[in-house]
Specification:
The protein has 299 residues and is α/β, with parallel strands linked by helices. Helices cover 35% and strands 25% of the residues. The protein has a single domain, classed as Ribokinase (UDP-N-acetylmuramoyl-L-alanine:D-glutamate ligase). The strands form two sheets. A nine-stranded mixed β-sheet has the order 5-4-1-8-9-10-11-12-13, with helices on both faces.
Length: 299
């Protein structure tokens, strides 16, 4: 089954201890697509400006991403500039230019409205709401967000949470939205807001999954040289959702395996700038690293 992802397509400028890259392909929808495409057909919904390089559109086409609903408007493409220092766990945002994203109103085709699996990647919750309203009877809806929307669009985010099946957040966002320091309590609180499943990303410390039936924790895949963590969470979500799209049942076994796939996908992402490492991935690469991961976490 295919999936529809709403998010950003961006031009990122990133500085880490390993170098500086200017105006490289990025954005939540792009990073999500790089891992999700390994499992299923990805329909990308986003907007770019007239300054967006055609080579990036050609690249996404070649990777099999469906760009029917990638709009191009007059203006500049969404740009983010960030720097990582120390342990590279947190990015220092140097500049953000919303550009055409300010007037973005997603518009999907008649056929795309029938897609059953939806991922609402990090974006204004009001835009996410409009997209979700256009979908006919989705099977599975997952939502990502960030602290900016938690603080500035709190009511809109709470309204949206009542309509989604899975809420994906990092540990800081989970604590910010709930006021709970303990992540189990935070997950329980988030669950009470509407989503039946909560997935909390903990960066180098792995992930926590919570639902009524079970709780599951998994460590991160050990990477000895993190080059650029930008987009790791979106890559994780892409692997997670991509695997679930292939399964008829959302049972414990399938959810755990989906989280494991997302974890190993994210481990590739951090080993290079932007999509350097995920662009050339195939499912065989994920399977090989997943087998290594199993030997690391099991005894």
């Amino acid at each position: 089954m295919s999936i529809l992802v709403l998010g950003t397509v961006a031009l990122d400028t990133i500085k880490t201890p390993y170098g500086l890259r200017k105006n490289i392909l990025g954005g939540s929808a792009v990073h999500f697509s790089m891992s999700c495409r390994l499992f299923t057909e990805v329909n990308l919904v986003a907007i770019v400006g007239t300054d967006f390089p055609e080579k990036h559109i050609d690249f996404l086409h070649k990777k099999g991403v469906i760009l029917t609903s990638l709009l191009k408007n007059n203006g500049r493409t969404f740009r983010w500039e960030g720097e990582y220092k120390g342990d590279l766990n947190c990015a220092l945002t140097r500049n953000t230019e919303l550009g055409v994203l300010l007037d973005f109103c997603p518009n999907v085709s008649k056929e795309q409205k029938k897609i059953k699996n939806i991922f609402l990647a990090n974006l204004d919750p009001d835009i996410q709401w409009r997209l979700l309203n256009s979908i006919n009877s989705p099977r599975l809806v997952a939502l990502d967000s960030m602290n900016y929307w938690i603080e500035n669009k709190h009511k809109s985010l709470l309204r949206l949470l009542k309509r989604v099946d899975i809420y994906v957040a990092n540990d800081q966002e989970a604590r910010s939205l709930t006021g709970e320091d303990n992540l189990i309590k935070a997950a329980r609180c988030l669950h009470s807001l509407g989503p039946r499943m909560i997935l909390i990303k903990k960066g180098e410390h792995g992930a926590l999954f919570y639902c009524n039936k079970f709780i599951f924790c998994i460590p991160a895949y050990p990477v000895d040289k993190v080059i650029d963590p930008t987009g790791a969470g979106d890559t994780f979500a892409g692997g997670f959702m991509g695997y679930l799209c292939k399964k008829d049942k959302l049972n414990e076994m399938n959810i755990k395996k989906a989280i494991a796939y997302g974890t190993v996908a994210a481990s590739f992402n951090v080993e290079g700038f932007g999509v350097e490492k995920t662009a050339g991935l195939c499912l065989r690469d994920l399977e090989k690293r997943l087998n290594q991961f199993k030997r690391i976490v099991l005894f």
